[in-house]
Structure formats: C-alpha cells, structure tokens
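Morning!

This is the sequence you dropped in the shared folder:
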Amino acid sequence: MWSFAFFCLSLSVTGMDAAFTVTVSGPLKAKENEGIDLKCSYTADFGATPRIEWKFRDSKGFHVFIYFDSKITAEYEQRITVYNGGLRFRKVTRADTGDYYCEVSGNGGYGENTIKLEVSVPPSKPVSKIPSLIAVGSNSLLTCFDSEGSPPSIYKWYKDNTPLPEDPTTLPSFKNITYKMNVFNGNLEFPSVSKLDSGSYFCEASNDEGEPQRDDGEDSHNPDLKDSLSTDAQNVMGKISNTQIMEKQYINMLTAVFLCLSLSVSGLHAAFTVTVSPAVKVKENEEWKFKDLKGSQTLIYYDNKPTAQYTGRLTRYDGGLRFSKVTRADTGDYDCEVSGNGGYGENTIKLTVLVPPSKPVSRIPQSVTTGSNVRLTCFDVDGSPPSTYRWYKDNTPLPEDPTKFPSFKNLTYKMNVFNGNLEFPSVSKLDTAKYFCEASNGEGTPQRSDTVLMEVRDLNVGGIVAGVIVGLLAVALLLFGLWYANKKGYLPKVPEKKQKQQAVYTQSRSDDVDADEEFRQKSSFVV
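The structure's back. Tokens below.
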C-alpha cells in the first residue's frame, strides 16, 4: 500500500516540473487569396484551460495582436477563425507575409514558437526604363522593375530577342560586350557604351510563381548612339521610329531640318543624316521608388506624375517630393533616379516615421510555483521605431544584467529590452513582488503597463501526500464495503442459468423396419 502511495506521489511531483512545449507548423508558403491553417499544439502540462495568444510581426518589425484575451482582434475578426489553438485564414494577402508567434501559458509555465509565412504573388508586367539616345563612351543604365511579385522577382535582359548572360565574360559570343547585370534589382549597366551595344532591349521578371512577365514592345527601345554631345554640329547615323519621336519630347530645340526629316521617314527604319542645332537642351527624366522594410518596391513618381496609390498624398516640387501626411507604413527607403543626356544617377533617402509608444500590454502571472520557469512579457503595438522595454519590481527599475549590481546579485532573471521579455529560469521566493513594464522609443512620453502582484508559492508536498493517502483509503473502504455487502446478501444475486435439456427420440426398430429392412416413419414428432 505505501509503495503504491509513494509511486503516485512521485508522479504528482514530477508532473509539476515537466517540460512546457509548444509545437507549430511551418515554415509555410501560400498563394495570395488562398486560405491557410497555422497550427499550434502544446503539451498537457499547461493545464486544461491554458492561455493562448497570437502575434504577427511583419518584415518592417511592427507587431500586431491577432488573438488576445480569448478573442480575435478587430483587424482580423472577419478574416480568420480559431480552432484547437491554431488560426485559419480565409484568404491571405501579400501584407500577411511575416512571422506569427503562438504563445501558450498556464499552470505556472510558458512556451512559444514561431511560424514563418510567405505569401506568393506572381510577377506583374515590369516597368523598364531604356534610353533612346545615348553617347558613345558614356555610362548608361537600363532599369527593370516589378512592383507586384512576392517573393521579389529576379530579372533577365534580352537584346534583339537574345537573352543576355548574367556574366558576359563566360561566353565567347559576348566577350566584346562590357555590361554589368544585376538580376536582383533589374539593372543593366554599360560603364562605357559602344556602337556594338545598339539593339532592341526588353526585360523579363520571374519569381517561380506564375508565368514570367515581359515589358511591352513599345518600351523596348533601340538606342541611337551619338559620338558626342558637344556644342559642335554632328552627324548621327541610326534608326528612329514614331514611338521614339514621342519619347524624345525632352529635346526642346531642334532645327527645322531635323523635324521635317524625322516626320518624313517615321516608321521606315531607313538610314539618314540628321543635323542638330548648335545648342541642344535636354530635359531630365526623374523617377521615385519606395522600398519598405519587407523588401517590396513601389513606384511613387513615374512618367512625370505620381502613381495612383500616391495621388493626393504628395506633390512634386523642384528637387523632390512633398508628402501632405505620412503614416508608419511610409517608413522605408526612397530612391530618386535621374537620367538624361546619356547619363544616369540615383540616390536613396531613408525615412523613419516617428510614432510615440502606446500603453504596453503586459502578461504577468499572479501565482507561480517555486523552481518553475516563468516569463513575463511586455508589448507596445504602436511605437515607431520599435520600443525598447524596462521592467520594474516594487517601483524599482531592474537592470538589464543583474550580475553587475551587488543589490541584485541574488536574482537570476534574464531581460530582453528589445522584445520586452523578463524570464526567470527558476523562480524563487525572492521574486515575489509587484511588477510592471515601461515602453519608450525616444518619441513622446514613456508608457507603463498595469501593476500586477506575482506571488511565488512553495510546492505543497504535505498536501499532495495527504491527498494520495486519503484517495487510497477511500478506494480501500469502497472495496471493503462491496465485499461486506455481498457477503451479507445485500447485493442482488445473479440468477443461475439452467442447463438446456436435449431431447433424443428413439423409435423402436421393430415398428419402423419392415421385413425387407426398409425404414418407414410410423409417427411424426417434434423435439
């Protein structure tokens, strides 16, 4: 009896210090506008009703609650459902690409795990920028950009319908060409352009999602190469089409000879001689692109006007762009690209939109067991740049590293000031106190969470032993009562089953057998 009681006791004690494990699916990949399940399972050590929370962190570093306080947040309530601790998206978009945190707590334990989700989007038709008129020996940059593809597209360039290798030095047929191709950002650069580089160019964007996309033939230009752009009159040999004339509206002053000649041979692709005026003024072509922290790029200003997404939000002025209002989603890199007169230049502006922190949401258990692993969390959903965190114990700020301060040498916590976690690997009675956290990012006033008392209690071994003994005595008393009641006849007796009788009928042989030994039935019977 006592050995059995000790065995039950050992099970109860070890169960209090068991591993708290959270298991998730992933990494996951889904197509845009498709549904997907994010699965999260956990061990039974968290108890019958653990607390489950879901957070989302995009590539910009912004955190958002998805499931909190046993309900879906307002932003996601029409898009997801919760099942068995997991999330089910009805449809995902490219904005859902990022990290999803499943956090489970209960029974004095805490665990979390991360699912990385990538939403794939086929590439769109890329926008290319190819100069029509360039000078021999100048630096020329051809650009190609796909704003939709996820993951970001890689690019390939074609010259006269022939694909160009990424490294021309590896193929003998391209050894006389000295371009540089970047397949990741779509740039094709000629450090010193020559007559051999004349041709019809177009680019192709692909990301293994859907069909590769090419820019329109109208955007594929056949560059005219000039020997120089000096003030002296020069003769130019080349090809010209009506499309190229329309794109050469940036040339303001031309002689009447050039105008008449270009109109008369439009579309004939014939060789001709053009005399330009002594002073040619070239209008610069300016473009702006935006790259957010996820790596997605968007055209802001193109073809001398803001794109549809930014119309009404920004205006163009000499030297740049002016936003009427910015939001945290505008944080990222802005590329200004200027081309003209056969040259190209670009530069980048890094913009950080500042947002003060909001009141952080903290999770602090009110009762924990001595020796268990405990994690306190703190999270600010609004701050930009992301907030850093500080924890307070009984209104005293806790240092990030307690080993550096004599007054905190007996505390063995681990603090992460970037994600707001305060972890006690093995909590003790000394950790009993009132805790709150503070979020700050240098913008506005630091914000504090609510104060919660965390009480550390010893494991009640005496209560567990007493409970086991009482349980065993109750079982023994029940068995004894059943035995005594059965002995005294208080329990109903089970009726004995009577053995079935078998009837065998035997007829007299003398009555049933004739003289010729033939059997005949004399009477009928039923057994």
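Headline: Residues 287-349 form a domain with the Immunoglobulin-like fold (CATH 2.60.40.10).

More detail when I'm at my desk.
O.
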